[in-house]
Amino acid sequence: MRLDIEQTEFAAAVRAFAQDQIKPVIGDFYERGEFPADLVRELGKLGVLGVTLPEEYGGAGAGLFMLGLALEEIARVDASVAVTVEASVTLGAEGIARYGSPEQQAKWLPRLAAGEGLVAFALTEPSGGTDAGRTDTKARLENGEWVIDGAKCFITNAGTVMTDLIIATAQTGPGEVSCIAVEPGTPGLEIGPEYSKVGWRASDTRPVYFDGCRVPESNLVGQRGRGFVQFLELLDSGRVALAALATGSAQGCLDESLVHAKEREAFGRPIAENQSIAFMLADMRLRAHTSRLAWQDAALKADAGEPFGTDAALAKLHASQAAVENARDATQIFGGYGFMNETPVARAWRDCKVLEIGEGTNEVQRMLIARSLGV
């Protein structure tokens, strides 16, 4: 679709930052498995982390479409930074903006909108995985406090120097799941060590443990017993955002492959002149283009207040597959260089697989799409 002036300028500003500031240094962060806090803070100054949040708290109130534009531009050069933003905004800060009390919003949203802090959404559990409704973590009310016991796994942004808040799902009664906010440093909260991951190595992903962790009763986010509904709604937005991220990754693989194919010579001519390579590039362009159409359509419906759950599933399914296929083709075009971690396409190859798993596996997306067809 054609962007308006505000959207064009915002996307251009994020693109310039990604190309000029993130791309030259992210490879070193990736190899070290180090979280690039200064880069994330600078994105906050650009307004990326507050783009969907209410204006009264310093955000732009611009909606999911604008966030998607930013995520796509960031993911063209690195998925680790992009998923840091995506998880904090769609699953974390948006939870406070949508369901939090006025007191919670006034306390946490200004820092989050300014990009000075991040949120971790602690949903996944060791025994649950895709079965997100199976919540073994429990919270009981005792003398005006929630006492939380349980464990979470694969939690993005759980242990960064910027983490302001962890929102955890927990059983608060028989058949009742609620969301509770826990601040880092709270007694009884333990942040586990960073995972050794295949990809997304410059993002922060850790287990989280609760052992008699006490927080005020007022830290309940949203209505008691509505946590399951809340996180399903957040996951719909998260799927659109992840589709935008996947589109950026697919586009980035095309960008890198096109430059390489025009410069790399074999048998006396650039490899781009070989029909097999040219057709591969054409297919990569097609995947990135259709993925972009899918996430943008879903985002526009979300911002208009229209039902978009099925559109989110379609976008996430298609874009994640496109990212995997483009990363595979890019490494093939790069040949031996594509197998070296110093190249962006090698990082994209390591990063892409989780896109078919996160925010609901692609099997779940197919299930949702099939249900929408009445089968």
List strands and helices in order, with pairings.
Layout: H1 5-22, H2 26-32, H3 37-45, H4 64-75, H5 79-99, H6 102-113, E1 118-122, E2 138-142, E3 145-156, E4 163-173, E5 176-182, E6 189-191, E7 205-216, E8 220-221, H7 227-263, E9 265-266, E10 269-270, H8 275-303, H9 309-334, H10 344-352, H11 362-372
Parallel strand pairs: 1-4
Antiparallel strand pairs: 2-3, 3-7, 4-5, 5-8, 6-7, 9-10
Description:
Its cofactor is FAD. Keywords: FAD, Flavoprotein, Oxidoreductase. It is a single chain. By secondary structure, this protein is an alpha+beta fold. Helices cover 51% and strands 16% of the residues. The protein is built from eleven helices and ten strands. Helix 5 runs antiparallel to helix 6, helix 7 runs antiparallel to helix 10 and helix 9 crosses helix 11. The longest helix is centred in the middle third of the chain and has 37 residues.
